[in-house]
UniProtKB/TrEMBL annotation, chains A, B, C, D, E, F:
<dbReference type="Pfam" id="PF01177">
    <property type="entry name" value="Asp_Glu_race"/>
</dbReference>
<dbReference type="InterPro" id="IPR015942">
    <property type="entry name" value="Asp/Glu/hydantoin_racemase"/>
</dbReference>
<comment type="similarity">
    <text>Belongs to the HyuE racemase family.</text>
</comment>
<protein>
    <recommendedName>
        <fullName>Hydantoin racemase</fullName>
        <ecNumber>5.1.99.5</ecNumber>
    </recommendedName>
</protein>
<dbReference type="InterPro" id="IPR053714">
    <property type="entry name" value="Iso_Racemase_Enz_sf"/>
</dbReference>
<dbReference type="InterPro" id="IPR052186">
    <property type="entry name" value="Hydantoin_racemase-like"/>
</dbReference>
<dbReference type="GO" id="GO:0047661">
    <property type="term" value="F:amino-acid racemase activity"/>
</dbReference>
<dbReference type="GO" id="GO:0036348">
    <property type="term" value="F:hydantoin racemase activity"/>
</dbReference>
Length: 249, 249, 249, 249, 249, 249
């Protein structure tokens, strides 16, 4: 099967890292197609960035129909555009935050998230609430490092995650740690060894769940909420998002 | 003061109607600037449309800085882009769904919303939950009419709202009716007379709340969640959303 | 328009302060009528005081009909008698706690309340829950000072608010501070300057929301929960609260 | 022991009925003192009535100290003044709505409430929420009969309860029925036989819980929320509620 | 009346202590029958122990029918098997955790629980949530001591409870302390004196509630959730739990 | 890898059906070991049956250690013993109700469950709440058929599911249907074709999630809630559950 993993930001080095993580988790017969959108921000660290990453994500979802893609993974921990992506295609679409909390719930009773800048804490709280997981998440721990700081200085990154992960275990009594950024995948294994609790990266969780859903032959429900978008005109820079065969079946 | 009312869809006839409603509610000394974005969908009836309306909305928010705008109203009942808009400016930004539920809560103990197509019910449920109003909203009643159907055939529109409004009062025991689409503003007064309960249009509620906040000299908190977006590069059709003086103070 | 601001306690000095705040926020064409009830406690610092302030508040609401009042503001942070007041009149009635949380929600994602004695914390928690705002309120910070202590020693009052406000920002990461007592209105502006986040006083918020609702011509729904009280006899000291034309339309 | 059962309304015939129910449930060595306040409404059917019944209730609580009362039951299904009563005395105070939901929870997984006029539905919903019982209460069924209608026409009363009780069992699948008015106590036994599920009257539940708490020697916590009211002056018709030895220990 | 108090663990010394507490609280005319099951763990400190204590508990419930028991108390703070016990008999069954939170709610606005090992915190959180009491419980404080440690070294036990109880009062601002293990009953009185807030043991609460319910002649609803178990075959060590007259009426 | 699928009831014909479903979904290289416990009920249709199935389930979990099992699936829609199973082993354990709601959440915004007898509705409601999925589940539809009725008369079974499934789609507007019993797996595909929405069987969902977790090399967190059970003695029929090497690592 072919799974398209979309890194919603436009930093290709980060997409490479995500691709690597996805491939390391995928089964041998699963083809991973890892991409960044053709438009949007180099990193996502605010509502502004998140919303503006969505057009590019949706474009990649639409392209997936021609690329013979069987399922999609949206690889940013805010799950940007997830609901719209489910409208645009009937192929399964999995968000990495969503995948990580469901996976964690099957392994640990209570857990904490470690993520990037303080400003995104409210965003993640709202997201966790929308998944019904607020009772299980003990804390959302932010760091002074931005998304690309983890790319630029992985040494500092792992050190920061180690520090906050330890506090999550010792102070929150977190029974698992969730990595709240797609760019942290590479640190999961060594952190898990050091911290002694499951450390969960959403990218690999998302890929495995996507494989599972494709194996089961399940598709997104097209009955009501996730119907294909209504046919209509779009104007300006986004005019290509208007009705055309690829979008609206 | 100057209030910019942004109709997130690109149908100018509807923007006219919204402008008319806004002006009828505004104080004589309030200037209303009603606009549609330069890009995006002609109507918003899905997550897809909603997310894709946001770039255009944010562009209008940014322009507002140069236009001497004192406050913004986002005039679509999904409050698209509201959180990001609050990052982009320190001027108050009010969403019409948000304004309508707060206003309704000061007038009625329990209420129902009447809106457009069934597919948006989940979207509105999630929105109402995020505002903490789930206990007060008895029902979200959808109709088979789309956003522009209310423009095209106002006779049918009022008839549909009358019918669902009556059911809301008689079956839900709704003590107020909220109009779940910016294009329904014109029907509020006659419906209120017929139904005998407050009928609340979010556009006028949003304008009045915006006036109130400007009068108080209050601005959006820039401490954490709504800080200005981080400076960074954007690419592709959205490259203008990258860092520049207007966006990032 | 004429807005009657009712200070539910019987300390006239405090009513003067509330009047001053209300007038400073009201539009030039808004007449503010600030009163204290003719019966009840000199301050409200318990359920006991709160409940016993309500008869006096309701008496003032009823009088308002003859005074040509267009809207009412109940100016104590427990919103005493708010639901009953909405039964007694069809004019809009706004509580200052209610107004402050709705206003704050349009300016800040998360906030804390600073208020008087520790014993009222549970009261405020229950109130915040009833408004659906529990997710947004990070903390309710109490002080060792009672309501009238802030009147008697404003120097100590501002110092206390400054201290707790700072802790709210630094420890709770509150993005706005709500002043949890009508007698704190005078401190809002200087605190806001010092703390760097919106500091919200409910009195001015209540007045502005009342103006907005009157402008819109909206009245309290009389369908069910807020119907006029049933006609019936009252005895004893409260016999005047029984049925008469002014009360029961 | 001596339990004072306070009927918060001033209709003595109803107090007699409540006294009868209380005595029939009390142990032989329990003395029941059933009273109505000296001031307030003849029945409670709105927020207005409820709040205005509280001064009379609190006066009776205070008198209880001199009467050698060991515990109090507030016998109106809105539990008027319950929190303030717990401030005024350290003797246990039990509300009948509270008692009925806790009792019901030990006998049935899910239940419905049958009560008086439609207008009090919101009041009861808020009360049930404050007790954390919203998941267990399937429905609050109102009737077109007021409180005193059940006194005046018990035939019609039982018929109405039978009808709504049956619908509760058949349509709500209620596993117990709670009688949502102190004046319905007399109907409980025959309804229970007819409906085949527990029918719970709060008056007898309240009395038995009060006996249990007194037996255990437990008193209301005076640490924080339920501390004795602060000493202060009251004016007007309520001036006797100000500080004096009986109130403020 | 006869109340059977079932200590779900098989440590008879602990059953003796529970019997002593139950008898000290019971009325003179109440006969207390305190037992341990014939099978299961010597103490309950995990989900594993809890679930494996249930067969023994249910066996004791079933035997109660022949023993002329009027009501049952399940005396372990996880309320093991409570829902199934209510299926097996129509006599009232009360859990001690359940009883303690309802009792506490009538005496204190907010409270904390002090219990045994850290690993049971999640279990208690889920239990408290299922009783709708999550808002009232400020903290669940665990200790490094297991259930039988309190038996073996009561000196250390009271010291530990004293320490955590004090922290509950001073740090949580708990207005009552709930003892989260049936083996702590003996410490309640002296702790209450020291801490100055109600200290609530579930065993005595359960006994008094059971007495109250029997006095009222109420039985468990057999309509739906708590119907007698369906008749069916059981195999293996548990074959005696299959259908027979005693179990299935 | 080897996945042990435990049918918690002792009806081997049903275990065969579950085995068939599990194998049809498993990857070629996944070995499915489907078993029933050696003790317990022939079907699970009450809290009584559910709790009494747990000892047998836990015994099978423990045996799994010697059988070289990599992960477990508990194949009854009440997820009996799931938390204890996670204590007993560090291999992943997945419940089929849990798996079905997480899978459904990735495919549909809102869904309904169709299950067996009415009496289990409360059980499922509590389970769904504990997974945080109450907002997504529109309805739990019960049928007059017991667990084994679906075995005995599959014609009637499919007819019943068809009928309730249709009502779920048409009346609840369910966007997916979850089959609330492990014995319904065989009906999923034909129902999905007829109903036009995803029909989700928990057995196959559980198997695929187990595969995914094993692929990722993740194990259950042993930090706190799911630590191995404390070493201790058990007596009576359950004495083998006491401490021994297999159980307590």
């Amino acid at each position: 099967m072919k799974i398209k993993v979309i890194n919603p930001n436009t930093t290709l080095a980060m997409t490479k890292g995500i691709e690597h993580a996805a491939k390391s988790a995928a089964r041998p017969d699963t083809e991973i197609l890892a991409v960044s959108p053709k438009m949007g921000p180099v990193s996502i660290e605010s509502y502004y960035d998140e919303y503006l990453s969505i057009p590019g994500v949706l474009e990649e979802i639409k392209k997936g129909e021609d690329e013979g893609v069987d399922a999609f993974v949206i690889a940013c921990y805010g799950d940007p555009g997830l609901n719209a992506a489910r409208e645009v295609t009937d192929k399964p679409v999995v968000g990495i935050a969503e995948a990580s909390v469901y996976l964690a719930s099957m392994l640990a009773a209570r857990f904490s998230i470690v993520t990037v800048l303080p400003r995104i804490k409210t965003m993640l709280e709202e997201l966790i609430d929308s998944y019904g997981m607020e009772k299980r998440v003990l804390n959302i721990r932010t760091t002074p490092m931005g998304v690309l700081d983890f790319e630029r200085d992985p040494e500092a990154g792992i050190e920061m995650l180690r520090k906050e992960g330890k506090k999550a275990v010792e102070e929150d009594h977190a029974e698992a740690i969730l990595l709240g950024c797609a760019g942290m995948a590479e640190f999961a294994d060594s952190l898990e060894k050091e911290l002694g609790v499951p450390v969960i990266d959403g990218v690999v969780a998302g890929v495995k769940f996507a494989e599972a859903i494709v194996d089961l032959g399940k598709k997104t429900s097209k009955l009501k909420t996730y119907k294909y978008p209504e046919k209509k005109e779009y104007i300006g820079e986004l005019k290509n998002f208007g009705h055309n065969e690829a979008t609206i079946k």
